[in-house]
Amino acid sequence: MWDRADISSRSERRWVTIVGSPSATVSIMAEVSDDLRRLAVAVTERRRVLGLTRVEVKDRGGPADTTLARIEQPTATTSPPRPSTLRRLDVGLEWPEGTAAGLLAGVNADGPHSPIGSMNLSDALNFTTVSTPVDIIRELVRVSDAMLIELTDLGAAAPSAADLRRVIQKLTAVYATEVLERVGGPGVSIPPAIEVPFRPHLTSPLSDDQEIRREQLYRRWLAGARLTGQDQHYIPDFEARWRAKRRDIMLRSTF
Fold first, then answer.
1. Helix or strand (DSSP H, E) at 18
2. Which is the most buried residue in 4, 31, 103, 159, by most CB within 10 A?
3. pLDDT digits (tens, 9 = 90+) for 13-28
4. How far apart are CA 146 and CA 150, in angstroms?
């Protein structure tokens, strides 16, 4: 009986190695359908924009976190989501009704578009992310660094300083990802002026939290690191995410 599957990417195809014992290894080449890949990219990006974990999507009325994981990381044997699952995706990801089904069918392959019109107050205030000028982020980091130094010099309570440091690390990690998406990617050499200040976000130990670990690996991949072993299965999703981001940046620059 086969007990493990290692998946890596080569162009739009995946090499699936099924291992049953040290002496029995069979390799087959299979493809993930365009429909599943299109849905996976849209769902992953939407969840990232909303700043939600898979469990949080489930808590908002979406499918189970394990189901969401299969949707975001399809393999050659992944079956298309059922209509009920697609409806739950719309609810959990705050999409207009029918968006997930349309993405799977290729009807709205350019991405979901919300209707323009009036919104009630609760809907208007139901958001999880905001666009922030880079200058504000830099100023916040500068002031926080100064505060951390003062807290250390004054012998202030360690938990307060640790909490502040943890929040700032999250903020700078998001900033590092944004910059690396703009200057990095497959086959791109990162300038030292970019690599050096972001080195802590590229060399820190990988987290046990799968969401944090995924973001850490994404930044390393953007900076040119080669993913190995089980981490190689992220590559197709990372490529799709990076290309979608670059397209978005180019579209914004034309307006």
1. strand 13-21
2. 103
3. 443 333 343 333 333 3
4. 6
